[in-house]
Amino acid sequence: MWRYEKRLQYPVEIKHTDPKLAKMIISQLGGPDGELGASLRYLNQRYAMPYPNVAALLTDIGTEEYAHGWWK
């Protein structure tokens, strides 16, 4: 269903590191309001959804959020 190609859209050259910015980015991806949390909420809500087409939509959104995760 999903095919993930590990390549960047634009070339990136890191000249120096920024630990403060890295901490903020990690919190957005893996924190309580991050991508993983959003994915799990969507996927959990789909099981209580009485309408099959909306449950399917929640599944699609949840798996897409999961694909944004920090584990890449």
Automatic annotation (TrEMBL):
The keyword Calcium appears for this protein: yes
Record text on cofactor binding: Binds 1 Ca(2+) ion per subunit.
SUPFAM superfamilies reported for this sequence: Ferritin-like (SSF47240)
InterPro entries: Ferritin-like (IPR012347), Ferritin-like_SF (IPR009078), Mn_catalase (IPR007760)
One function term, GO molecular function aspect: metal ion binding
Name of a matching Pfam family: Mn_catalase
Residues noted as binding Ca(2+) in the record, renumbered to the chain: 60
Cofactor: Ca(2+); Mn(2+)
Assigned keywords, A-Z: Calcium, Manganese, Metal-binding
Top-level division of the source organism's lineage: Bacteria
Binding sites annotated in the UniProt record for Mn(2+): 35, 65, 68
Similarity section: Belongs to the manganese catalase family.
Protein name: Manganese containing catalase
Organism: Dielma fastidiosa
